[in-house]
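Lecture 7 notes: from sequence to structure.
We start with the chain below.
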Amino acid sequence: EGKADQPKMHGDLRGLWIVRNNLEEVLFSRRFPSVELRVKALPGAYVCIPSDSELVRLFKTQAIDDEGPHITEFNSWPMIYVHRHGAFFLAIPAGPLLNSDCVNNPCIAAALLMLEDVSSLIIPYAPLYKNIHFAELNVFLSSALPFGKMLESNSTLLKAYTKHSYLHTEPLLQKCPSWRPHTFKGRQQLDLTIRESIVCVQYDHPLVADTWMVSGSVLCRAELEGLPEVTAFVVPPASPDINFISVDPCVQAELNPTHTNKYVFVPPLDPFNLCTYGVGQMNKIPLRGFYQMKEISPNVVKILVQLKLDGDINNQFEYCVMHIPFKGRGLISTVQMSPTAGSVALDPSHTMLVWNIGQKFTGRNLEVALPAEISFNGETSTAPLLSSATLGWLSPSAVAATESAILEEQRNDPFCREENTYVKLYFKLVGSSLSGLTMDTKRISLFPNARVKIGIENEIYSSSYTIWNSLGQVKSAVQPYPGK
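Predicted structure tokens for the same chain:
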């Protein structure tokens, strides 16, 4: 039988299961007989799926108790599972495990996407999980996975389609896209935000050069009635180069972003990234930092932290917070400090200072500084680093940025001892751009024509911003010689 006669199985699932943490109880099971019929038509020996109890028994011998995802083999068929919210989520896709290239296997990718969305859907019911809780899941699968073939896994879109679909509101002559399942009613507005993130490591070392990398995206939020077609123009800067441009699938495919700056699209209802891009080598960074820590005695150190904002950057922060850890020195007993801006707090573990710089650099020449003398008592801490309960004096955005760094700073790095240390900076600047990429507001148009309020914003945020102690050793990557 030729390949053209074989059934296409991409995105099909043979079954989906939810198993409690103890691997003894099957909380939910859904099989798709129509998919099994198509699997039987595939070349090779057919292997049926065993009963739920037997399947769990086989899975119990291979389960790994972490979040995953994981892929294991079941009679030459892949079994994908993730561990979320006190349960294991399993799926067997309708495609054999032919080789080790799992990343490019569409069956595995579709199964993993479905498992992630199913696990997110039932978060409110964790960890008790009663039978009545899975009624909503059955309704969801009837729309997202009819007859085992995956159509759409976004639960928000499916719920919106059920309640507010075009069929229930107004007749439309044109076909509505799957990412816009219902109409919007209200004041029309189109917001475009150019968000750029920077990864930066500063050494202040004669033998190690500072490094940084910038990437960005254009976030679009379109509250528009009907099925509008939006045309927008991105204006790239003359320098640096904008590269690695990718666009959202809603953008018309015939428009190649590498050849044109024109974007024509029917926007989804939810905010989305219209495009993402990389930025070529830049000659400047938004914040230049300097950090020195010197040991006065075994239990006393002096530090000096200085930050200078680039003159071309708008002096307006949503938040700007610095973490100053002291690893391997015991608990902080006393701190004598005189910051030129903001306030300094001691985290609950008594091993780190948190400097909340504020929303503006108020010092002369856009500079701020923190000189301090810190004493330690040599004892070790059992308290966790920085918790949200201690961050009430920060803004919600700053709390989110600070909490995202907790796990990284809880790791015990054996290299960071004595004067081998660094500080971490978390900030978000508004009204500024590193690349200079902009949107041409005068050329933004809608079809059919409508009066719409258009907003354009710029922001820069730190993805990772590290400043090493210039008096200690540093960790850095070594560039290989050409040809090596």
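Points to note: The radius of gyration is 27 Å. Helices lie at 33-40, 52-60, 106-121, 135-144, 155-164, 166-169, 396-403, 406-410.
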